[in-house]
Write a structure and sequence with these properties.
alpha+beta; YerB-like fold; 11-stranded mixed sheet; 7 helices; 21% helix; disordered N terminus
């Protein structure tokens, strides 16, 4: 019996040792597989984020793809430290309650710029703005005087590239604004949002049809001999750029061209300003908004990014991994407000690969300010009418006074945010 127990004990010990060895081998194998998976993930993340710090790309784990039906819930809300200038008061906006009782009224005898909500002279408050088409391909950068635009529109054109349109209230003292580029019909609609005189250099066939049939007040550098004489080729840009990227116009010449065309220089009596602002000494805090310290807007072959700067309470704009710089001032473009409007594109597949943009009707979008964003809705009755911006509750959208960047995208998946 004793011998049996000894042999049994030995067999038991051998069995335990063998099981331990087998288990050890299995553990090492799993560890190697896990290590390989982590390494692959880290490499992928590193590749995606190795860009200039100010325009850092968003990794998959950091981004949130927006959808048209997305609702902002309390669980999704994150606190964001907002920069509030010493003179400014915070207006908390939940997109539902009226702000009438909390908006700081303008002082008696003062006036506000319809494009920015900032104080201005009586003449500036009534002055009809200009909307200038601006080239935005790499070979034409940097643009001149683009930082002086109160509102900047961006939308896709042929080849997956984008074109910009700057809306200016105070342009008379600006030099060499440009380079000026050609029209597309949907930009005519964007200019109508602000009752602006439309400035361009040529255009698509459909754009010219619209300009003529709608009797648009426009200054054309290519096919208008009267207005065209006030545009010129900038000699400084000629030194480094192709001829087609050098067309500019001075503010003083804009005044002369408008005068010779005898265009109306004040807002129409029927103009309904699409932009509402709180008081000049106030900033909007989006109560219930979702954190948005960085966002990316994708257009075909072009990418625009915005990084929230808490020191200035603005969004700093970059393009394709580079800061978007004004060639005249050297400053990076910065905006108190960024608005994204979702307007489906239709690709015509014509000889020029033109696209059509459904900017008349209604749709959804997003409003970014103070490091947060919320969902909004838009509507536009006709090409010549002004767009209306409201919250899902139906209440109008109020903006922080300052500059606004409006991005027109084809669907919500073009926008990512973190």
């Amino acid at each position: 019996m004793k011998a049996f127990r000894t042999k049994g004990t030995v067999l038991l010990l051998i069995t335990v040792l063998l099981l331990g060895i087998l288990c050890g081998c299995g553990t090492d194998g799993n560890a190697q597989e896990t290590t390989a998976a982590v390494t692959e993930t880290e490499t992928e993340t590193e590749t995606e984020t190795t860009v200039p710090e100010t325009t850092q790309a968003l990794t998959e784990t950091e981004t949130e793809t927006l959808t048209e039906t997305e609702a902002v819930t309390e669980n999704e809300t994150e606190a964001v430290t907002e920069a509030v200038p010493a003179y400014a008061a915070v207006v908390s906006d939940n997109g539902k309650d009226s702000l009438a009782s909390v908006i700081e009224p303008a002082a008696a005898g003062t006036y506000s710029d319809p494009l920015t909500g900032l104080s201005c002279t009586k003449e500036e408050a009534a002055r009809r703005p200009v909307a200038i088409m601006l080239n935005n391909i790499a070979q034409a950068l940097p643009q001149q005087q683009i930082a002086a635009a109160d509102i900047l529109y961006e939308c896709q054109v042929e080849g997956g590239l984008t074109r910009l349109m700057g809306v200016f209230n105070d342009w008379s003292n600006l030099t060499a604004i440009g380079s000026v580029r050609s029209s597309r019909e949907y930009y005519i609609d964007f200019a109508a949002n602000h009752d602006a005189i439309y400035v361009h250099a040529g255009g698509s066939e459909s754009a010219y049809v619209n300009l003529k049939s709608r009797k648009i007040n426009n200054l054309d550098a290519v096919n208008d001999g009267v207005a065209g004489q006030y545009f010129y080729r900038d000699p400084v840009r000629r030194q480094t750029m192709s001829y087609e990227h050098t067309l500019v116009i001075d503010g003083d010449d804009l005044d002369k061209a408008i005068a010779v065309k005898k265009y109306r220089t004040s807002y129409s009596s029927s103009f309904d300003n699409p932009l509402n602002f709180v008081g000049e000494n106030q900033v909007i805090s989006l109560s219930g908004g979702t954190k948005a310290t960085a966002m990316t807007v994708k257009f075909g072959a072009h990418t625009t990014t915005f990084a929230y700067d808490s020191k200035t309470n603005t969004y700093l704009r970059s393009q394709n991994g580079n800061k978007h710089i004004d060639g005249t001032t050297g400053e990076q473009l910065a905006f108190e407000n960024v608005i994204v409007l979702i307007c489906p594109y239709t690709f015509t597949n014509d000889d020029y690969n033109h696209i059509e943009v459904d900017d008349v009707g209604s749709g959804t979008g997003y409003y970014f300010t103070g490091g947060k964003y919320v969902a909004i809705n838009w509507s536009k009755a006709s090409g010549d009418s002004q767009v209306k911006l409201v919250y899902p509750s139906g209440r109008e959208v109020y903006l922080t006074p300052g500059r606004t960047n409006i991005e027109i995208v084809s669907y919500s998946g073009n926008v990512t945010v973190s």
